[in-house]
Amino acid sequence: MKPPADSDAILVFPSQGEGDCPHCAAPLHHSAFVTFKNDAIACVKCGGLENLEFLPSGNTALTRRTTALSEVKYVVLKFSRARKRYERQGILARPEILDQARRECEADEAARETKRQTSAARREKQDATHLAAFAARIRELYPSAPDGVEHKIAAHACRKHSRRVGRAAFAKELAPESIHLAVRAHIRHNHTSYDRLMSGGTDRPDARLLVAARIEETTRRWLSH
After folding, report:
1. DSSP label of 193
2. I need a surface site. Which of 3, 18, 52, 150 has the fewest CB within 10 A?
């Protein structure tokens, strides 16, 4: 499969070790990487990659700095058969450029770590504020819910990295629909036989149908003043 076009970079690929370089006839299994030259595969030497060093993906700061210092951008891609697309593996750069980028990264590591910690603290504060507001909104909309249940619901719905309703964009605005969804989910799992039905092999649609009346009854009680 032909690689994707990229006007800003020379695309490089791990050698599959098959065939010979059409430019110099060297066996491609001797080449760590290959690229394209005049619409044909080229080995390390013919592709001008001979004196470049591979930097794997993962260190964002080092990759960004190396790319900024490099006159030519070399991006290493590998085709994923599972995902049916090319995925970035890293970059190639001259060793002296990589050394300079590493030195610069080491020099300002303390500043970047401070920035990371400050950002993390800010996110934690934002999460705590959102959690408290979400719980307060639950209590406002469901005044007859059991004491303290709003905090349990909010903690579950707003858990970080959970992709639950409390993390959704409309939940950040405390939209009533997000509150109702979180409360109904809590009732389903804690005040009905839903989990027991699911563990017993009942299909999800059937289990939801069987507990729907119980959820509606509990919801009405929690909503009443």
Report:
1. S
2. 18
- Give the pLDDT confidence of 61-81 residue by residue, as tens digits: 999 999 999 999 999 999 998
Phi, psi at 78, each rounded to 5°: -135, 135
Strand 33-37 relative to strand 40-42, pairing: antiparallel
Q: Is the pLDDT of residue 186 over 90?
A: yes
Which runs of E-coded beta strand occur in 38-190?
A: 40-42, 53-56, 74-80, 85-93
1 in a structural domain: no
Whether residue 101 is found in the same domain as residue 26: yes
Q: Residue 77 sits in which domain range?
A: 10-107
| Mean pLDDT, the chain, integer | 91
Q: Is 136 exposed, middle or buried (0-12, 13-18, 19+ CB in 10 A)?
A: middle
Do the domain assignments include residue 133?
A: yes
Q: Which of 63, 67, 64, 61 is nearest to 108 (CA)?
A: 61
Q: What is the bridge-based pairing of β-strands 40-42 and 85-93?
A: unpaired
Task: Decide if pLDDT at 1 tops 50.
Answer: no
Enter the pTM of the model.
0.57
- Both tokens of 81, joined, read 């058969």
